[in-house]
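User: Let's play a game. I give you a shape written as tokens, and you guess the letters that built it. Ready? Here's round one.
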């Protein structure tokens, strides 16, 4: 009788152990893609001592999000540089030219983050790399994630230095007319799936 009880108990213990292991495994990250409308990627730079705003009209965003494990999050953003708009055609054409963004050779900029980390203030930051004009540099950007409809809203702002990415050749390397710092603001509507 004792032996037959052991035969019953052993499989039950194995099933219980397997169930506990499955329960301990993290849930798979959810995939989000940029919604068709409601997103913005804007920038501000200083020209002739005045703040000059602009935006990129075309960009795409993908997010793999695990709410319980930020280190597993992934973010990819691709920006169509030719879509920049500062409200002045001559200025836009200059920005797209060979001495600045050089859109003919480098039509896109890309940001790719392989993880998110907690900041000291409790917020999140994406840990990734920005590639622009053929130059890739590590860049951490603050990210706020909030529920929005059937998805998420990703938002934040940061500052980059244009000369770090070669955006400014020849006379545009000087910073007395156009400043080096460029402020980026982003708010992206994300839908689950895709």
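Assistant: Ready! My guess for every position:
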């Amino acid at each position: 009788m004792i032996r037959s009880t052991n035969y019953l108990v052993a499989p039950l213990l194995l099933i219980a152990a397997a169930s506990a292991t499955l329960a301990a495994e993290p849930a798979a990250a959810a995939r989000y893609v940029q919604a068709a409308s409601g997103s913005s990627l804007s920038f501000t730079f200083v020209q002739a001592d005045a703040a000059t705003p602009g935006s990129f009209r075309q960009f795409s965003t993908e997010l793999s999000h695990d709410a319980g494990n930020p280190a597993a999050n992934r973010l990819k953003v691709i920006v169509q540089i030719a879509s920049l708009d500062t409200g002045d055609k001559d200025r836009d054409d200059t920005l797209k030219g060979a001495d600045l963004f050089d859109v003919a050779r480098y039509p896109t900029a890309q940001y790719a983050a392989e993880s998110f980390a907690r900041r000291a203030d409790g917020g999140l930051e994406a840990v990734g790399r920005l590639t622009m004009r053929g130059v890739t540099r590590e860049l951490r950007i603050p990210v706020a994630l909030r529920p929005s409809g059937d998805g998420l809203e990703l938002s934040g702002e940061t500052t980059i230095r244009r000369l770090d990415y070669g955006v400014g050749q020849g006379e545009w390397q000087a910073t007395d007319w156009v400043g080096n710092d460029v402020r980026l603001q982003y708010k992206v509507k994300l839908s689950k799936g895709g």
